[in-house]
């Protein structure tokens, strides 16, 4: 008999989780959301155990933060060793070698045959904020272009650059000036009658028109693009669109910034998602899975651009902390030693194949998309009208949770199920997780029929 990895023996929340949930509601503002109503006790690899003894297969990975898995032995070892030496000195007070080594290694693996330098920070939003600062400093321009449906963070600047109004922007204005939203391809929802190629031509023309009708290109410091939109619904742009935007940036002296915070570090089968598009960004923002759960982020960029800022203009108290650096160095070792780029590509093929079989059976699956192990399905009420089915999506997530699978939705319509399992997940765990996914889908569809 094969091993079962998931087991939910209580209602959610269980008794211990109920007590913690009550304390949580009394102490923590409701503006801090949560997915599943329980609390983690231990986690290893792709398995999370809660405080009531329930075990879950993780298809969320802390929203793409745990590519090398929960509590990887090499990460734990690196952190223990660093804690025994020192916890923090502040790199801008007394430096430490791990910051330098991590910068060297990130520069070496980033695309582009040119000299690069690396600034280390704390969070993804902070990386994007600093990419904006660096671009403005270098170009002596103020304008920033991001894209429809993009997500870049929750700080003032990154919230401004983000598209989704609720829950990220509603009643939090006014927003930062000189930020412009350009159209971004959404192939599944292209105008009826347009071929994929014609739609890509159309979107390229739209971006060119944008530089004439919305903002003058000579005022733009940077274009910031997710190579595959994360929170926006795992939407993959056409390769030619990305390359044309990149070329227009070059023509107008605009920096091209690839936001790799969710797509980086083996998630798409490459170190960086932008590698699928054969362009070499001027700046790259990284975070999430770089630290395997330890806060760290960074900006990788052309040396001459990164060096434009003067001493003291970049950095912060905890930026590039010793613990974050050691965790990240371990992550890079793990990706190389365990061949996680290849594993990410393989996982994507397995998941996509399974979703395609489900689509033959369930009409609610409107689209299947992604790059590597960054996979998703979009759920609709009708394949012809493509009306989003947010309610079904939410039911599937709850049904999956009840059966021992952590799952997360996405998309501006809230109707996309995104898959972000740790890339170290075993074949057996993956198969069980996909089986639970199918059970949750079937049960949720049946509930719809009964209603």
What's the SSE blueprint?
Elements: H1 15-27, E1 40-44, E2 47-50, E3 55-58, H2 61-64, H3 73-85, H4 97-109, E4 116-121, H5 124-139, E5 143-147, H6 156-161, E6 179-182, H7 196-213, E7 220-225, H8 239-252, E8 255-259, E9 283-286, E10 297-302, H9 303-306, H10 322-337, H11 340-361, E11 365-371, E12 374-379, H12 390-402, E13 405-406, E14 408-410, E15 416-419, H13 427-450
Parallel strand pairs: 3-13, 5-6, 5-7, 7-8, 8-9
Antiparallel strand pairs: 1-2, 2-3, 4-10, 9-10, 11-12, 12-15, 14-15
Helix pairs in contact: 3-10, 4-10, 7-8, 12-13
Can I get a quick summary?
With about 450 residues, the chain is of the alpha/beta class. The chain is about 40% helix and about 15% strand.
Descriptive notes:
The structure is a single chain. The chain is α/β, with parallel strands linked by helices and 451 residues long. The chain has two domains: 15-68 and 339-450, Aspartate Aminotransferase, domain 1 (Alpha-Beta Complex), CATH 3.90.1150; 74-337, 3-Layer(aba) Sandwich (Aspartate Aminotransferase, domain 2), CATH 3.40.640.10. 39% of the residues lie in helices and 16% in strands. The protein has 13 helices and 15 strands. The strands form three sheets. Strands 4-10-9-8-7-5-6 form a seven-stranded mixed β-sheet, sandwiched between helices. The chain has a four-stranded mixed β-sheet with strand order 1-2-3-13. A four-stranded antiparallel β-sheet has the order 11-12-15-14, covered by helices on one side. Helix 6 links the parallel strand 5 and strand 6. Helix 4 runs parallel beside helix 10 and helix 7 runs parallel beside helix 8. It is globular. It starts with 14 loop residues before the first helix and ends with a helix. The relative contact order is 0.16.
């Amino acid at each position: 008999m094969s091993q079962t990895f998931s087991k939910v023996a209580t209602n959610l929340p269980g008794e211990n989780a109920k007590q913690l949930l009550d304390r949580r509601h009394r102490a923590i503002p409701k503006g801090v959301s949560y997915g599943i109503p329980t609390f983690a006790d231990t986690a290893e690899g792709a398995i999370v155990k809660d405080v009531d003894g329930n075990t879950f297969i993780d298809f969320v990975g802390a929203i793409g933060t745990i590519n090398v898995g929960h509590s990887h032995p090499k990460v734990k070892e690196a952190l223990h060793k660093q804690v025994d030496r020192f916890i923090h000195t502040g790199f801008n007070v007394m430096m430490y070698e791990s910051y330098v080594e991590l910068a060297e290694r990130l520069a070496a693996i980033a695309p582009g045959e040119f000299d690069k330098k690396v600034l280390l920070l704390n969070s993804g939003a902070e990386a994007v904020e600093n990419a904006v600062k660096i671009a403005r400093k270098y170009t002596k321009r103020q304008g920033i272009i991001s894209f429809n449906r993009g997500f870049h963070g929750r700080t003032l600047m990154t919230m401004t650059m983000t598209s989704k109004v609720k829950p990220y922007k509603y009643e939090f204005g006014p927003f930062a000036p000189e930020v412009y939203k350009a159209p971004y391809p959404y192939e599944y929802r292209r105008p009826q009658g347009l071929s994929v190629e014609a739609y890509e031509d159309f979107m390229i023309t739209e971006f060119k028109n944008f530089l004439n009708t919305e903002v003058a290109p000579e005022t733009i410091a940077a274009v910031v693009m997710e190579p595959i939109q994360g929170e926006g619904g795992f939407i993959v742009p056409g390769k030619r669109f990305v390359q044309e935007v990149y070329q227009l940036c070059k023509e107008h002296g605009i920096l091209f910034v690839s936001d790799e915070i969710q797509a980086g570090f083996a998630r798409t089968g490459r170190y960086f998602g932008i590698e699928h598009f054969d362009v070499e960004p001027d700046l790259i923002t990284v975070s999430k899975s770089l630290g395997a759960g330890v806060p760290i982020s960074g900006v990788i960029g052309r040396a001459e651009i990164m060096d434009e800022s003067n001493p003291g203009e970049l950095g912060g108290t905890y930026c590039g902390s010793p613990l974050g650096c050691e965790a990240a160095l371990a992550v890079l070792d793990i990706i190389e030693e365990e061949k996680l780029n290849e594993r990410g590509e393989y996982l994507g093929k397995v998941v996509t194949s399974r979703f395609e079989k489900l689509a033959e059976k369930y009409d609610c699956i409107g689209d299947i998309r992604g790059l590597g192990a960054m996979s998703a399905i979009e759920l609709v009420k009708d394949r012809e009208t493509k009306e989003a089915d947010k309610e079904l999506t939410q039911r599937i997530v709850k049904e999956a949770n009840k059966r021992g699978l952590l799952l997360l939705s996405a998309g501006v319509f809230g109707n996309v199920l995104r898959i972000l399992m740790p890339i170290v997940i075993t074949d057996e765990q993956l198969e069980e997780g996909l089986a639970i996914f199918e059970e949750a889908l079937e049960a949720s569809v049946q509930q719809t029929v009964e209603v």
